[in-house]
Design a protein that fits this description.
Elements: H1 3-32, E1 38-45, H2 48-59, E2 73-79, H3 83-93, E3 98-104, E4 116-122, E5 139-146, H4 147-162, H5 169-198
Helix pairs in contact: 4-5
Length: 201
């Protein structure tokens, strides 16, 4: 499918996606409001060019073209400490039915790189549109990260996404060093959190 054809289909779906995005944003912020250590909770609709790239890499030839996506609408919840991820996950599971949970991390123990927890949930009936002609996906995605995971992931994605061709070994090693620093800092903050709670702060 050419981009122009995909773009027309996607543009027709955007009003429904925007509505789901707004409803999900309000719902998620209510869920996390009473929780501690939440830095932010943000929702987004996948951009048309990003959706087309994913379609061409994973779903090309499938019809209808949007039925296999699980992240057309997605949220990102950023927390302070690594232990907060499980707290937020538990709160989400009280409100949504989970389809999939994936821990994104380097394949080998001696590697450092992108880390994030990705959860795919079923869109509940109360978030679906009232009119059947408005497009609504069956699932949405939530990414859970600490501030330091996010601090690595976003600049790293920007650098690699804009790079053309093979990434030099020295650049990859420097990115791994940054990832290792964030990984270590996350664990130090977790230990300091435990110390703070032990003395009653």
């Amino acid at each position: 499918m050419e981009y122009d054809e995909f773009s027309k289909i996607y543009n027709d779906a955007l009003p429904g996606l925007a509505r789901l995005n707004d409803c999900l944003d309000r719902t998620l912020n209510k869920i996390v409001e009473p929780l501690r250590h939440i830095d932010r909770c943000q929702c987004r609709v996948k951009a048309t060019n990003s959706a087309y790239k994913k379609y061409m890499s994973k779903y090309v030839g499938r019809s209808p073209p949007l039925m296999n996506f699980d992240d057309l609408v997605a949220a990102r919840i950023i927390v302070f400490f690594t232990s907060d991820i499980s707290v937020v996950r538990s709160a989400l599971l009280e409100h949504f039915d989970r389809v999939e949970r994936t821990e994104k991390k380097p394949e080998f123990d001696d590697q450092f790189g992108y880390e994030s927890e990705h959860l795919v949930f079923v869109v509940p009936p109360h978030l679906k549109p009232d009119t059947p002609d408005e497009f609504c996906p069956s699932t949405f995605e939530i990414q859970l990260r600490t501030i330091l995971m996010h601090a690595y992931a976003e600049p790293q994605h920007d650098i690699l996404y804009k790079s053309s061709g093979e990434i030099p070994k020295t650049i990859r090693r420097r990115l791994a060093w940054i990832a290792a620093s964030c990984w270590g800092a996350d664990r130090e903050y977790e230990e300091l959190r435990r110390w703070s709670e032990a003395i009653g702060n």
